[in-house]
Structures are given as C-alpha cells and as structure tokens.
C-alpha cells in the first residue's frame, strides 16, 4: 500500500467514524476567522447545547481537505455544556466532503504544518477575544491535528489537552513506524531522500508537496508534549489501522515521567475514529469531559478511568 493510500484511508476513516453511532443534533454554524496575514479561515462554531456553559473547546481536525460541516452536530452530540470551535485548514470549506486524494492543487501547495499553526493561532486568538469567557479552555487535536497542540498551547495556555488518535510522537517517527507496519519502508525511505534533496517545494509526492514533507520531517511533537505543563489525555483505539500500537505504546511509556498529569485510554476493539461494534468512543470521551468540567479542580485523570 502506498503512503498516499494510507493518507486517503485516514481521511475516509475519520469521516465514517464521525457519522457512526451518534445522535443527530443542531447548533453548528459557519464562521469566518482571520488567519495569518488576514487570510480568512472557514470555521464552525456552536454554543453550549445546555446551560450552564462549563467548557470551551477548540478543535483541530485531521488531515485532508474535507470540512466537518456535514458531520459536526453528530460528532459532538454528547458534548452538551461546551462551547465548541472547529478550526479548518486554510483553503478548506466547512461544508466540503472532498476525498483526500481529490484535494485541489491550491490546497496541496499551501498545506504545511507551519502555515496551519500560524493560521490556527491567529484564528483562535481572535475567537477568544471576541468570545471572552471564564470557563476552562481545552484544546483537542484529531489525528494530524494533534500535532499542533503543543505549540498552540504554549501561546493560548489552555487548562488541558486532548489527543484523539494522535500518537504523540514526532510525525516523521510515527510515519516511519506505520510504513514498516504496512511493508512500505522503501517508499518511506524514498520520501526521506526526496525531501532532503534539491527538488522544488512545489513538487508533489504521495499527494503532498515537498514543502509539506520538509516541514513534517522537522516538526517536533514528542518533546513539547512531554515537557509541557498542561494536563494531557491521549485516547486511541486498540484496532487502529492507521497509527501503529507500537507508536502509542512508545509515547505512553515516555509520558510516565511527565511532570504534568498524563492519562492514556486505549479503547478495546475501537478503530482510528474510536468506533467499535455497538460502541461510540467519541461520545464516551465527550461524557468524560463533561464530568471533568463539572468539577475541574478534581484530578484530571480521575474521570477517564472508567473505560467502556
């Protein structure tokens, strides 16, 4: 299987998981927010579905160019007392359902972690200034979105971080482990050589520009998460086909020495989208966050110990 096919499966899995097992709801509306340099990002916003508001949640979705507009109400159905902001990448329409392998060329050329981080920070700051509140702020990253949590947290100072299907390792290491798992180590090594070579940043390999791959190869995730002062919960499925269990296990072992609270939740039978037969791990997670928000002074990991 090619690395591009892996990315395609990742985007499809997230969309399918979001549609599975959740109750229909209403409330998300599109919102334009300024990114870096004033470029407008398409976001989604929803007030708390039930009073009182106890939590503010900023969400960074996974890879690809599909928006969460069509699925957001179902995806976050059980998150009742939270004000939620979903920040899409530059060039992503909130209502887009574009498959990952069909992303337009302009999106492919501008997609890179440093740009995403700069845009997300500018947009989040604007939203927080326009919607001031005293309830705890939590940052949540889904899959690739989890790779931006630490640099954003350093500037936004949230109460806690949530990694959903994110390994916690540097993406180049997580990618290497997944390539080995799929028998695609040779393709990964070829990509490593290409990003280190003299090709133009605009050259496209495996559905991404060399600009994207060069940034990813140098993007730190592990050390900033381990050193950060924020409580952290990492939730993944034991049957995740897109991130190897070896990657989760490695970060979990390293995080035991973390100075701030860290809790790991491996959901039995669940896939990359936290779905398993008859169980929706996402709605379980929202319920746990709701419980914590009722008494945020309680130990961070206490509410995550009852694994479904």
Automatic annotation (TrEMBL):
InterPro entries hit by this protein: AB_hydrolase_fold (IPR029058)
GO MF entries: hydrolase activity
Keyword check for Ribonucleoprotein: no
Signal peptide residues on this chain, from the entry's feature table: 1-24
Keywords: Hydrolase, Signal
TM regions (residue ranges): none
Name of the protein in question: Alpha/beta hydrolase
């Amino acid at each position: 299987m090619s690395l591009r096919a892996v990315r395609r499966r990742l985007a499809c899995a997230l969309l399918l998981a979001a549609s599975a097992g959740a109750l229909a709801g209403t409330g998300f509306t599109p919102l334009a927010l300024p990114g870096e340099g004033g470029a407008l990002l398409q976001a989604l916003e929803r007030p708390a579905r039930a009073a009182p508001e106890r939590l503010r949640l900023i969400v960074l979705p996974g890879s690809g160019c599909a928006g969460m507009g069509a699925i957001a109400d179902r995806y976050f159905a059980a998150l009742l007392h939270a004000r939620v902001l979903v920040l899409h990448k530059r060039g992503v329409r909130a209502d887009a359902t574009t498959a990952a392998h069909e992303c337009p060329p302009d999106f492919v050329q501008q997609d890179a972690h440093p740009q995403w981080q700069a845009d997300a920070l500018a947009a989040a700051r604007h939203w927080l200034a326009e919607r001031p509140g005293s309830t705890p702020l939590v940052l949540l990253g889904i899959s690739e979105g989890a790779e931006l949590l630490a640099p954003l947290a350093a500037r936004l100072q949230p109460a806690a971080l949530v990694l959903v299907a994110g390994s916690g390792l540097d993406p180049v290491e997580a990618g290497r482990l997944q390539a080995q798992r799929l028998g695609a180590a040779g393709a990964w090594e070829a990509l490593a050589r290409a990003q280190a070579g003299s090709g133009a940043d605009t050259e496209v390999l495996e559905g991404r520009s060399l600009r994207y791959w060069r940034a990813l190869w140098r993007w730190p995730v592990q050390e900033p998460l381990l050193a950060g002062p924020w409580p952290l919960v990492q939730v993944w499925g034991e049957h995740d086909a897109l991130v190897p269990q070896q990657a989760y296990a490695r970060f979990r072992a390293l995080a035991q020495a973390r100075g701030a609270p860290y809790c790991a939740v491996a959901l039995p039978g669940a896939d990359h989208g936290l779905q398993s037969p008859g169980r929706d791990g996402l709605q379980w997670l929202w319920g746990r966050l709701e419980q914590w928000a009722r008494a945020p002074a309680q130990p961070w990991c206490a509410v995550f110990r009852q694994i479904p």
